[in-house]
Structures are given as C-alpha cells and as structure tokens.
Amino acid sequence: MKNLSYRTLLTAGLLATLAGICGCGTTVNTTERAQPVGQADMVDDKRVLTDSRLDVHARIRGVNQSMTAGGVLRVQVELFNDSRSRRSVSYHFDWFDQNMMQVETPATTALIPLVLEGKESRFISGVAPTPACKDFRLKLIRTY
Fold it and tell me: How much is the pTM?
C-alpha cells in the first residue's frame, strides 16, 4: 500500500511537470523606439468578428497604408497574439476598385499561413495588384 501511494504520487508529479512544460507557450520580448521617426497613415477600419477566439489569437492593432513608387496601394496590418501560446492563422487580402468592385487576381483566394508566438506582435502586408485598386479587405482565418 505504501509503495502504491509513492508510485501514484511520483506519477502525478511527473504528469504535473510535463503539463507545465508543454502548457507554457513561447512568448516574445520586443524593443522599439520610444519616439518613432516615421509617420503612419493609419486607416479607420470596420471589423466583423465571427470568431471570438480568432480575435484573441490574431487581434488587429492597427491598419496603415501607403503608396508604392509606382502609385499602387500598399497596406500593412499589425496583428497581436493575446494568448500565451503559439497560434496559427491564415490571411489574404481582397482588392477593390473605385466603384468597390472586386479586382480578380490569381492570388485572390490564396491563403497565406502565419504563426504568432504567445504575446507576439507581427506586421502583415499586402500590395494591390494594379493602380486601379483603391480599397481592400483583409480576411483572417484561424487554423489548427
């Protein structure tokens, strides 16, 4: 009986240790300028959230836009993983002309995979396929 209790206690301790090791996600420490030199052209955005867990795994912090030297719209979105564990998402940009008609491209439906470590902030970018594109929509999809 004494031996069985020791084994049970040892097994429980081992399982707790393994759970602690496996359950802890990797997190990211970062450093940046306190007073950034550049000026961002931040975009007011409208969000439609259909997956609340995805909003934790890849929360949008801000949307910035600029024009390339060739006059093509470029968009940058900052995503933040608010959880402590590594999370995978996929994304893609839809592009629209001045009449809000979608501009079809071969990559219109291509999903781009992205891994975010716990508490990590990452920037994703998209460049419109033509200068006729005046607007965009970002789609985020949680992957498992």
Answer: 0.74
DSSP-assigned letter for residue 112: E
Domain locations in the chain as residue ranges: 52-143
Partners of residue 113 on adjacent β-strands: 90
Q: Does domain 52-143 have CATH number 3.10.180.10?
A: no
- pLDDT at residue 107 in the model: 64
* 126 has pLDDT over 70: yes
Q: Specify the higher pLDDT residue, 105 or 34.
A: 34
Phi, psi of 6 (to 5 degrees): -65, -45
> DSSP labels for 33-80?
-SS-SS---B-------S-HHHHHHSEEEEEEEEE-TTS-EEEEEEEE
The single residue listed with the structure tokens 């716990």 is 118
Best mean pLDDT range from 30-34, 88-92, 106-110: 88-92
81 neighbors 55 (Cβ within 8 angstroms): no
Cα distance between residue 86 and residue 103, in whole Å: 34
- State the CB neighbour count (10 A cutoff) for residue 81: 25
